[in-house]
Design a protein that fits this description.
The model has no long low-confidence stretch (mean pLDDT 86). With 197 residues, this protein is mainly β. The chain has strands at residues 2-6, 11-15, 20-26, 30-34, 37-41, 46-48, 54-58, 65-72, 110-119, 124-128, 134-141, 149-152, 162-164, 169-172, 178-182, 188-196. Helices cover 0% and strands 46% of the residues.
Length: 197
């Protein structure tokens, strides 16, 4: 195993004498350049340098880079070293169809704290209009007396929508309009907070 330390913005040239470059540890991602090409160096990756004789390690980060690597003529397959824990896992016997997953992460830029809204007994009401700029909305049932509110679209009623009991919170992760129906015999109250994109 070899170790290498590079200052921020610096470059180190390595002669590749064997085929496989295994990156065992790195303090942060960096660039590996070779033959007028570039890839990102990240922990756990293995690079096949069969036709490459020289690579450059570029520390593109603001901090000092520390890496540990091996160069070998054999292909090494990595397995977890016991530090992975899976909770509430699902056992899959077989996959019959391809599953495409799109993951996206959004960071809210602003939080709007809105006025509380009262909903009359056995009636529905628009809680908040649709907004393309909203990332998330939290609606909390803050009724003074036990009341079940049902949250949903314009058709929400006593028999449809997501029920939320007193002190419960409903979270909407998009900018759709939200309605609430008060199933109780008393006035109910909702507190709102929205996170904007």
């Amino acid at each position: 195993m070899s170790k290498l330390t590079l200052a921020s913005g610096s470059v180190r040239t390595l002669q590749v004498t064997k085929r496989w470059f295994n990156l065992l540890n790195a303090s942060h991602p960096f660039a590996i350049r070779f033959n007028h090409d570039e890839v990102v160096g990240m922990v756990g990756r293995q690079y096949d340098f069969a036709d490459i004789k020289r690579i450059e390690i570029h520390n593109t980060g603001d901090d000092e880079l520390h890496i540990e690597y091996e160069i070998a003529n054999i292909h090494i397959t990595s397995v977890a070293d016991g530090n992975v824990k899976i909770v509430n896992s699902i056992n899959v016997e077989r996959i019959e169809d391809e599953v495409n997953v799109i993951a996206r992460t959004e960071i809210g830029q602003e939080i709007n704290t809105l006025n509380d809204i009262e909903i009359q007994p056995h009636s529905s009401q628009l809680i908040i209009n649709a907004s393309a700029n909203r990332a998330e909305l939290m609606a909390k049932n803050i009724s003074a007396t036990p009341a079940v509110l049902r949250f949903g679209g314009a058709q929400v009623s006593n028999s449809n929508g997501i029920p939320v009991v007193q002190n419960g919170t409903f979270v909407l992760s998009n900018g759709a309009a939200l309605y609430a129906y008060n199933t109780s015999d008393r006035v109910a109250k909702v507190s709102l907070l929205e996170v904007m994109q």
